[in-house]
Amino acid sequence: MRRHLSELLLITGILASSAAVAATNENEVWSYEDNDGVSHFSNVPDGSPYRLYLKDPGRYHLKSDRFEERIVGRTVSSRTVLMDQNKLPFADMVNTAAAEQKIDPALLHAIIHVESRHNPSAVSTKGAIGLMQVLPETAKRMGIDSIGTPQGNISAGARYMHFLLDIFGKDVQLALAAYNAGENAVIRHGNQIPPYPETQAYVPAVIAAYDELRKQRATVAR
Fold it and tell me: To bridge 181 with a disulfide, which of 28, 146, 185, 197 should be the other Cys (CB 3.0-4.6 Å)?
């Protein structure tokens, strides 16, 4: 029995490794949300908490754009609902920060969605705080003393994103990579997305959410 169990564990490990390789080859993004509301991403998932988050960036839909009609707790139908970004949580604060920093508000919403699912209480093990998962030291660099409130957090995150876009010539993907891994990591790797599973999964996740929000915005505006 022990031998069979060992063989089973070995096979399971091999399958898990194969799945990780397949994910990398297919550019899939895997994610899980921890107990503090912080999202974690990888293109090489190495544990059971991870679930497939993004298989095809061109066919991504925000998880909150599904409306399910339920009867006595049973789902009987579902349909896609257009999402007006001005009705998303903290939209007024996002719009204000975006205007101040000359950033598309949809990009800020996409970062917030991926970072915290619009959860202002999210705190990572590395000390990143709030909606945009801003580190206190980053906020101070941006001239923001408090990131404990949604307004302060969004303001700090928007200023940092503006700073990164300036550094990397308005390249959104490199700015997002730097937002996740730090600007020095991107510079060290020759102004390329660093070869970190977290960062390489994070960037397409945000881009997909951003593209979806822009597409929905264009549809709502018609």
Answer: 185
Domain annotation covers residue 76: no
Is 115 a residue of the active site? yes
Please give the angle made by the CA atoms of 47, 53 and 57, to the nearest 5 degrees: 135
Q: How many domains does the chain have?
A: 2
Supply the pLDDT for residue 6.
38
Q: For residues 137 and 58, state if they share a domain.
A: no
Q: Which tokens go with 169?
A: 């010539």
* Residue bearing tokens 């390329």: 192
Per residue in 97-125, pLDDT tens?
999 999 999 999 999 999 998 899 998 88
Amino acid (1-letter code) at residue 84: D
Look at residue 71 and tell me if it is in a domain.
Answer: no
Per the prediction, the chain carries an average pLDDT of 76
Tell whether 123 is covered by a domain. yes
**Is the pTM here over 0.85, yes or no?**
no
Residue 135's pLDDT band, with cuts at 50, 70 and 90, is: very high
Shared-domain flag, residues 41 and 118:
no
The residue type of 46 is D
Share of the chain above pLDDT 90, in %: 45
Range of the domain at 59: 2-63
Model confidence over 33-57: pLDDT tens digits? 676 666 666 666 666 676 665 555 4
